[in-house]
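Extended Data, panel c. Modelled sequence:
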Amino acid sequence: HVYVAQAVPYEARGRAIGWLASGYFAASIAGVPAGAALAHFVGWRSVFALLALAVLAVWPSARRLPPTRGAAAFAWSDLAPLVRARGVGAGLLAFLLLSAVVSSVMTYLGAWIEIEFGATTLGVGLVYMIGGAAALAGGPLGGRISDRLGKRPVAVAGNLAMAAVLLALPRLGRLEHVAIAAALVFLSASFRFPPM
């Protein structure tokens, strides 16, 4: 986010962060299904070994990132005034809670549809792939709208949409409906990410 904040003017920042968010959620399109297939055919241990290799493969490119402008050493004493600044503490809390929600959905959705609907590991991967595809659209859309209408309305709309779908999700009785609802959760999560 720091690179985007420094390189993109404020009035276009929502779109840029929307694309950044899409990259995060796009991992569901390929990463979860690939991991599910790998786990299905050769076991879970291989998935963690592959993840370790992926992290190591990215490390050299991360080292080539240019330095940020005005980069200063972080001091814990700088954190308190930042959190007390108008709106920052509430924003941090909102981001923390919403990140916890997304992480929880990512963690428990697969187990729930395996237990409740008898989905296979490959079926779980397919649900995440559908959700990831929906999230690809949500980030840029939320960014574009937040640049036009303002960040607050988009954040509120995305949060309300996600809450409504999460409340409906456990009441759905068919796996196809759960897959659609999961896609809407991913879409709304990605949609509300740029203004946060």
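The first helix runs from residue 2 to 7. This feature is highlighted in the accompanying rendering.
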